Amino acid sequence: MPHIPEAAAIPDTKLAKAITEFIRDTETDLLFNHSSRVYHFGALAGVHGNLKFDRELLYAGAMFHDIGLMPSHSSKHERFEVDGAHAARDFLRSHGIPEADAYTVWTAIALHTTPGVPHHMHPVVALVTAGVEMDVLGLTYDQYSEAERTAVVGAFPRTPKFKEDIIQAFYDGIRHKPETTFGNVKADVIADKEPHFHRGNFCSVIRCSHWHG
User: Fold this and answer.
1) What is the DSSP letter of 13?
2) Predicted pLDDT of residue 155
3) Could you tell me which InterPro entries the record lists for this protein (predicted)?
4) Counting beta carbons within 10 angstroms of the beta carbon of residue 155, is it exposed (0 to 12), middle (13 to 18) or buried (19 or more)?
5) Between residues 195 and 186, which one has the greater pLDDT?
6) CA-based angle 154:157:163, to the nearest 5?
7) pTM to 2 decimals?
8) 6-207: what fold?
């Protein structure tokens, strides 16, 4: 069985263990395993790109990035990304993490569904999104070796119908506040002026990704 390299392994620290315990007790198996893969794929992307990044902060960003989908951490009117960012920042503050580092993690989570922006930012911000885009959308599938993909999925398995399961989890987490989905005004403007414009569809990209299931 291929192994995840040490440079992309989960940090063996008190903070990382506390994060694992908290998310394990709060999220579903689906989201816990997904978030764990997001960390590993993000860390591997950092290794591939020779980026200097704090593994603890990346782990916090990856593990908390979807906690806003859980009823226990979902507000009535904030975007789920912001709910997750708030939860992570509060958790890190309670563990004595400096405000600047907590804000970096906040930013990484708040922007993880905003393509085209995070990769220009702090490595932790960029790598959380990189991990999400790999695990959910498979956008950088070919940038990982088969051994790397096998090692990550072996450690944190995908469900047989992961694509449909993750779409359902998103729906369940945001359906009570549809007004928070208002977003990419650029697509709205083009659609308003060009009747034949076809918007990109997040769910279609998931279903067409390289991943099976």
Assistant:
1) S
2) 96
3) HD/PDEase_dom (IPR003607), HD_domain (IPR006674)
4) middle
5) 195
6) 135
7) 0.94
8) Hypothetical protein af1432 (1.10.3210)
